[in-house]
Design a protein that fits this description.
It is built from 21 helices and 10 strands. It is α/β, with parallel strands linked by helices. It folds into 3 domains: 313 residues, Up-down Bundle (ABC transporter transmembrane region fold), CATH 1.20.1560.10; 218 residues, Rossmann fold (3-Layer(aba) Sandwich); 30 residues, no CATH class. It has a 6-stranded mixed beta sheet with strand order 6-7-8-3-9-10. A 4-stranded antiparallel beta sheet has the order 2-1-4-5, with no helix packed on it. Strand 9 and strand 10 form a beta hairpin. Helix 2 runs antiparallel to helix 3. The longest helix is centred in the N-terminal third of the chain and has 50 residues.
């Protein structure tokens, strides 16, 4: 229940609607409970004495109570819906804002599909629990207490039936709720898996079609879909037991009351109107039990969803601003001082080990290394996308953990290995680099990134629609647009993580030429092609998360066998042993 209580704190301005909705339910219930008392008088006094005026008077009273109950019920529907959907909106905002504060390491703990489910399906479950469960949850205790009290006032002997039937129904309903409670968590997990398969299939739909794997994806979807169906069927198979249990108990109570009540009427100990009113209270009391069971089922499911939502809200961002953050970054110098890093604290091996590197402001650095050598992991430590496990990373002479995160990341532009563009126009996407950039600034950045040549041929230019994820552009075009966006930030450090792999060598050469003109920016270029880093101020070779060698092209080509092998294979068509064609001719 603590999970639900915490979520109710997100009601905010909708708290008044919730309180008003609860008050309206109480008034509606009281009005309905008065009707059987009036009806008993109408029958026993008005009908028995054939007093038409009395019958009309009592009928008007019943009509007023019914109208009042109707009006309060309609008003409840309005304010209850406002409270439920207002709470849902606030919870989604809270979750979304929390995710924006997550570090990469936090995001690694949640599947994307699970986060989507927690912001949509789980929130909808809470909304439905309030919208559909608040009314019965408020009405039921009042109807139960007042119904039993008034029935005892009418006839204490007949009311004993409640003490026989009610505990039986309560035990059955308790057993149903206890059985179903853990099943709702499994149901939401099944929804996560279904969303995960759908998301993956739609994101990679082109690859699916290219490899003609549609049938395989259909089979994979069928498995998770069937799992969801079976989980849901099993869950609700037990959940609906409350209805037959309720009907069995209710009809048993009615039969017993009619049996004993009829006998009391024949003996002159009970009036017909009293029995009629008493039966009304029986139905109301039993109905209150039914409503309580339905409300508890909704509550049980909402508890599972509340727990999942709170897991998102309780996740503590592993990267946060220091108490007194430094706002100004002096320059673009970067120092790795004995840096070791692993993605998880309990991981057995480090991804990076004992890295000592020092880049001066304004230098151009090339980073080479095989797949899995931790090139991307290294540069992600600079803008604090991850924090080091041991050692320190310094920018502008200060540890990056001393800076305000926003200020640090504004000073560092990173073009990720995977091109990330958003729906909208080219102008919208470039605005991520600088919201205030005018057309001239955008075209200049596009020219520096080599993207102007294809964009000027498009009729709409900067207003060209990107499509979802930049689907209307080729891989090389998307890479160049991402570079232009990064340049618009006018950063002190520019990181290009294999961001020219999809462009031809001529275009890459042009981009390198344009980047060389940018002074005062420390440029860190991760590449697979040695031609991309040959002319840099320093080349770093990583191997298995360690710095194998560092130096200029001339120094490495003379002294480092790994660099010689890479150079020979890419530039001179090296043999299997890595020797160059000149070396083979001499041999």
């Amino acid at each position: 229940m603590e999970d639900l209580k915490r979520l109710f704190s997100y009601l905010g301005s909708y708290k008044k609607d919730m309180i008003l909705a609860c008050l309206l339910v109480v008034l509606e219930t009281v009005a309905e409970l008065i009707i059987p008392v009036i009806m008993a008088d109408l029958i026993d006094v008005g009908v028995a004495n054939k007093d038409l005026d009395y019958i009309i008077f009592k009928g008007v009273q019943m009509g007023i109570c019914a109208a009042f109950a109707l009006i309060t019920g309609l008003l409840y529907a309005r304010f209850g819906a406002r409270a439920a959907f207002g709470l849902g909106a606030n919870m989604r905002i809270a979750e979304y804002e929390k995710v924006q504060d997550y570090a990469f390491s936090n995001l690694d703990r949640f599947d994307t599909s699970s986060l989507i489910t927690r912001m949509t399906t789980d929130v909808t479950v809470i909304q439905n629990a309030i919208n559909g469960g608040l009314r019965p949850l408020m009405r039921s205790p009042i109807m139960l207490i007042m119904g039993v009290s008034l029935s005892f006032m009418m006839n204490a002997r007949l009311a004993i039936v409640f003490f026989v039937c009610a505990p039986v129904l309560a035990l059955i309903l308790f057993a149903v709720v206890r059985k179903v409670a853990p099943m709702y968590t499994r149901l939401q997990d099944a929804v996560d898996k279904l969303n995960g398969v759908v998301e993956e299939a739609l994101t990679a739909v082109r690859a699916v079609k290219a490899f003609v794997r549609g049938e395989y994806e259909e089979e994979k979807f069928a498995v998770v879909n069937t799992n969801l169906m079976e989980t849901g069927r099993t869950t609700f198979h037990y959940a609906v037991f409350n209805l037959p249990a309720f009907q069995l108990t209710m009809y048993t109570a009615i039969v017993l009351i009619m049996w004993f009540g009829g006998g009391m009427i024949l003996d002159g100990k009970l009036k017909v109107g009293e029995l009629t009113g008493f039966l009304s209270y029986v139905l109301q009391v039993m109905n209150s039990f039914m409503m309580i069971s339905n409300a508890f089922l909704l509550l049980t499911r909402s508890l599972a969803s509340a727990r999942r939502i709170n897991e998102v809200l309780d996740e503590k961002p592993e990267i946060a601003n220091p108490a007194d953050p430094v706002m100004d970054i002096a320059d673009g110098s970067v120092d790795f001082d004995n840096v070791s890093f692993k993605y998880k604290k309990n991981a057995k091996e480090y991804v990076l080990s004992g890295v000592d590197l020092h880049f001066k402001a304004g230098e151009t650095i090339g980073i080479l290394g095989g797949t899995g050598s931790a090139k991307s992991s290294l540069v992600q430590l600079i803008p604090r996308l991850y924090d080091v496990t041991e050692g320190s990373v310094k920018v502008g002479g200060r540890d990056v953990r001393e800076y305000d995160i926003r200020a640090l990341r504004d000073a560092v532009s990173i073009v990720l290995q995977k091109n990330v563009l958003f729906s909208g126009t080219v102008r919208d996407n470039l605005g991520w680099g600088d919201q205030n950039a005018d057309d001239e600034m955008m075209w200049k950045a596009l020219e520096e990134a080599g993207a102007d040549e294809f964009l000027r041929k498009m009729p709409k230019g900067l207003d060209t629609d990107m499509g979802q994820g930049g689907v209307n552009f080729s891989g090389g075009q998307k890479q160049r647009l991402c570079i232009a966006r990064a340049l618009l930030k006018k950063p002190k450090i520019l990181i290009m993580d294999d961001s020219t792999s999809a462009v031809d060598t001529a275009t890459e050469s042009k981009i390198r030429s344009e980047l060389k003109k940018l002074t005062g920016i420390t440029k860190i270029i991760i590449a697979q092609r040695i031609s991309s880093v040959m002319n840099t101020d320093k080349i770093v070779i990583l191997e298995d998360g360690r710095v194998h060698a560092a130096g200029t092209h001339e120094e490495l080509i003379k002294n480092d066998p790994i660099y010689q092998e890479i150079y020979a294979s890419q530039m001179k068509g090296g043999a299997e042993d890595g020797s160059t064609s000149d070396e083979r001719q001499k041999a």
